[in-house]
Known about the structure:
Number of strands: 0
Helix content: over 70%
Number of helices: 15
Oligomer: single chain
Number of domains: 2
Amino acid sequence: xxxxxxxxxxxxxxxxxxxxxxxxxxxxxxxxxxxxxxxxxxxxxxxxxxxxxxxxxxxxxxxxxxxxxxxxxxxxxxxxxxxxxxxxxxxxxxxxxxxxxxxxxxxxxxxxxxxxxxxxxxxxxxxxxxxxxxxxxxxxxxxxxxxxxxxxxxxxxxxxxxxxxxxxxxxxxxxxxxxxxxxxxxxxxxxxxxxxxxxxxxxxxxxxxxxxxxxxxxxxxxxxxxxxxxxxxxxxxxxxxxxxxxxxxxxxxxxxxxxxxxxxxxxxxxxxxxxxxxxxxxxxxxxxxxxxxxxxxxxxxxxxxxxxxxxxxxxxxxxxxxxxxxxxxxxxxxxxxxxxxxxxxxxxxxxxxxxxxxxxxxxxxxxxxxxxxxxxxxxxxxxxxxxxxxxxxxxxxxxxxxxxxxx
Length: 407
């Protein structure tokens, strides 16, 4: 490594790119870069690395941070990410005027950073150990949680239970190469795997409990339902999607019909009220026959308008969900009234939780369908009252007028 490494140039430019993508880099942010630098420095000194070798690792670390921030992949395919990493590092080095030999070595090194590969080179081993150390410290589980949230924001299709399977698989096969890391962090790594497995079991129990409470069913029925869901997963989803899409479209059409009819009732009654009040003001009525019938019709029109307005009056909503409610699948994010007060990052995370879990997504669609039906029922009741009041009020006014005249 005879080429001088422009570490300050690389660090400054990479910092700018990482900050520009900070809306998605929840885990591999600037703080992560400085933590990793401390681990690399400690391991490098223990292994007797030169300053030039340390600078190379620091430069590779910053470039890997850019790859994680810009990550265009949406699956845990490390081959695809490795190809992108190599090309992107070479492109950045060319833009920054870095020598081609150093650029090639950095590109090769960064493209080899992956958890599913056995490492023989000392620099690769030190970098690998530094990455695993960040998961084994006191806030290691929080770091894994942040990394999962980052992957969701970047478009990865991983449900939470599936994430536990993936990460525990990598952690179980992970090994430290340097003696210092083995002595200080190997046990913590095993303890982390054990705690993650326990956490997964607790999550499964909470999800089962939430499902039992929602459906009011027994443990035996839960097991039977899970078995049936496994069979459903093997079916073609297009039939289910068509069913939900058709029923939702039909109900939205009914909703529009109610709104149009309510608007018609408001318009008709408003016109009648305008004519009645205008006639009374311009030509005061003293005939008790006309007064009683006009009064009845006026009250009927006002009551009809009142219920017509109720049928189209929007409900007041909370507009927010807690993290626990999202994890237990209690929130319906398909309706704006339920999320309009949420922060954009919280909403993105919650929505990715939903769309990355097929069962959760179908539950949300079914729940949205149900509450749409409940809303339609209330609207129909108010509209029916509006129509009935107008009908009987109009007939009553005419009949009353005829009866009084006959007397």
